[in-house]
Amino acid sequence: MNQTPKAKMMHTFLKRMTLATVVGLGSIAAFALPSDRNQPITLLADRATFNERTGVTTYSGNVIIEQGTMKLQANSIVANLNNKRQISLITATGSPAQFQQKVDPAKGLAKGQAQKIVYNAETGIITLSGNAFLQQDGASIRGATLKYSMNKGDIEATGTPNKTGSSSGRVQIVIPPSSSTSFPGARD
To answer: What is the sign of the dihedral through the CA atoms of 91, 92, 94 and 96?
Structure first.
């Protein structure tokens, strides 16, 4: 089958865009349900560009990426490749950028949102900044910036100093009551 040079170039471009997306999402999906990794990846965007020289792939315009229970929505997503042509950094921006994923079959969907979500594949750290919010099964954490280490399972929340004592801008954590836990002296 003879393809024109332009058709060959478009085919190569699409293969590279797909590879960059699959590699990037595969890094994030490693901490999801095992069944998610076996699901197809669907990517919708108004525009997609790939720069071979810099290794930067950009998706813009109501970007939606889905794989199994994982869903990421943003105004734009930029994926940067390192010198080994592997995803090193994924940045999603939006008003807000949102994601959800089921990471444990016994728990509900984990959901998060922020103005900017950055995933560093080399350190395994996800940083949500700009009115960042994470929730799962009634528990939530909110702050100006939230950093989650996928390797350690640690989360660090940073708020804005507030001398008035109000909750505005400060870290806010909500822990739902547990039906299996009771406090000493508490009556049913």
So the answer is: negative
